[in-house]
Backbone:
């Protein structure tokens, strides 16, 4: 019963409010219509003459506005309690929000991981570019070396052709070239120990510091070991020693089974595949009379190595006379002697695949 009375009272309030609004709207509409009608009439009136004979009478004060009926007061709004559907929707929205937060956290983590991977890939790419640049430089060096070797081969071929032409054009009345005759003693041995080298050219003798130049090569290898680790082929030149320098070629060599067992598989062996000795500038050379005098360069080199060393003479065709005298002296002094004839224009050279000197 109480519920029915409250409902009726609420309906009465709503009805009263609606009626008041309708009345107010009608009044506003009537006022607008009146204003329009008055405006039209004023526009159609003819102009009149105003006379200032007497002051205009004071207009009557406007009547006070008619009081409007009081607006009825509205009661308190009814309390809205959430329904089960609204609670279910709110819970669903909360779960969706939490899921979106978790997905956002996952995306942020993935973004950081991808950024780290990108940085690592950039570092790896930079390293690969450096390696590629190093390989390109290596290929360029090897190409340059191949071109240099091809030029050397072409130059040697031209020299051979020139020598052949000179030999063909040699006149019969020219003095015959003295030939080196080998008189083998009863005993000979392959040189394996200390060896002292002499170059015989223009009937003069000069000491060739082969062992000192070999030490220079070893020092070059030690200084350039970082470069040699990245190359399979290297061509270098030592500094001059006593008027001679050595041009050498280094190559990476394979490891034997014994070497791998001894040093491991990570070790790289680099060896000299060939060398050439050339004079640089003026070389101190002595004729036979000067060479056999006390204090000469020839005797000084012999005494420094001792009688157990083997003497190797590199003999050009124009120096057989001095070779005969020096060989006879060294034999009498108790040295083992090995002689290596050289064609004109060919430098002193050697390689691991070459033959060893045979001393007599």
Residues:
């Amino acid at each position: 019963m109480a519920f029915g009375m409250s409902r009726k009272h609420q309906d009465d309030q709503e009805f009263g409010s609606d009626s008041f609004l309708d009345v107010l709207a009608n009044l506003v509409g009537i006022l607008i219509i009146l204003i329009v009608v008055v405006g039209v009439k004023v526009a159609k009136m003819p102009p009149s003459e105003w006379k200032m004979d007497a002051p205009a009478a004071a207009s009557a004060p406007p009547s006070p506005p008619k009081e409007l009926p009081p607006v009825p007061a509205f009661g308190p709004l009814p309390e809205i309690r959430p329904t089960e559907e609204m609670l279910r929707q709110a819970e669903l929205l909360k779960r969706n929000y939490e899921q979106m937060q978790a997905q956002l956290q996952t995306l942020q983590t993935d973004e950081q991981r991808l950024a780290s991977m990108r940085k690592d890939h950039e570092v790896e790419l930079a390293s690969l570019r450096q390696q590629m640049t190093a390989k390109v430089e290596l290929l360029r060096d090897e190409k340059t070396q191949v071109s240099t070797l091809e030029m050397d081969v072409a130059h040697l071929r031209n020299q051979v052709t020139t020598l052949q032409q000179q030999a063909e054009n040699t006149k019969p009345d020219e003095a015959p070239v003295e030939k080196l005759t080998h008189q083998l003693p009863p005993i000979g041995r392959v040189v394996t120990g200390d060896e002292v080298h002499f170059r015989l050219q223009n009937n003069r003798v000069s000491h060739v510091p082969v062992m000192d130049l070999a030490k220079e090569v070893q020092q070059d290898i030690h200084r350039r070991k970082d470069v040699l680790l990245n190359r399979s082929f290297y061509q270098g030149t030592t500094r001059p020693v006593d008027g001679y320098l050595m041009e050498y070629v280094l190559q990476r060599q394979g490891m034997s089974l014994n070497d791998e067992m001894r040093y491991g598989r990570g070790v790289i062996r680099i060896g000299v595949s060939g060398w050439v000795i050339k004079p640089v500038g003026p070389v101190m050379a002595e004729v036979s009379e000067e060479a056999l005098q006390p204090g000469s360069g020839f005797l000084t080199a012999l005494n420094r190595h001792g009688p157990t060393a083997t003497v190797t003479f590199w003999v050009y065709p124009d120096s057989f006379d001095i070779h005969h005298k020096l060989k006879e002296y060294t034999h009498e002094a108790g040295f083992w002697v090995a002689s290596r004839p050289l064609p004109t224009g060919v430098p002193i050279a050697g390689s691991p695949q070459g033959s060893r000197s045979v001393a007599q």
Remarks:
- Residues 1-9, 178-192, 354-360 have pLDDT under 50 and may be disordered.
